[in-house]
Amino acid sequence: MTLIEKIKIAVESGNLPTWFTTANIKAWITENSITKSDGSPFAQSTINSELSNRDIGNLPTTNLSMKILKSRVNNNGEKGYCFLE
Question: Given 3-state DSSP classes, what are the helix, strand and coil percentages for the chain, each rounded to the nearest 5?
């Protein structure tokens, strides 16, 4: 299962907020020992790039990842993401 699939399940089950930040994802990964399918940890750069590459706000792009997130800057100045409906 990919990281974005794991994030989607966590949002749907209430383990992550509907609007989440990179910090939320990193804390969730640490607190829940979320790993790649081979058991190795996700690199910090993987987390950042996965969210960015999936963001519909990053169009046009040469990246072929399916755009399934939208983003906005929250009141704390952090970029938040949520899944497109």
Answer: 40, 15, 45
Query: What residues contact 72, with CB distance under 8 A and at least 6 apart?
Result: 19, 79, 80
Instruction: Provide the Cα torsion 71, 76, 10, 28; round to 10°.
Output: 130
Cα gap 70→40, rounded to integer Å: 28
Handedness of CA 15, 19, 25, 31 (dihedral sign): negative
Every domain of the chain and the residues it spans: 3-83
What is the per-residue pLDDT across 6-36, written as a single tens digit (0 to 9) for each?
999 999 999 999 999 999 999 999 999 999 9
Instruction: Report the SS3 class of residue 83.
Output: strand
The structure's pTM equals 0.88
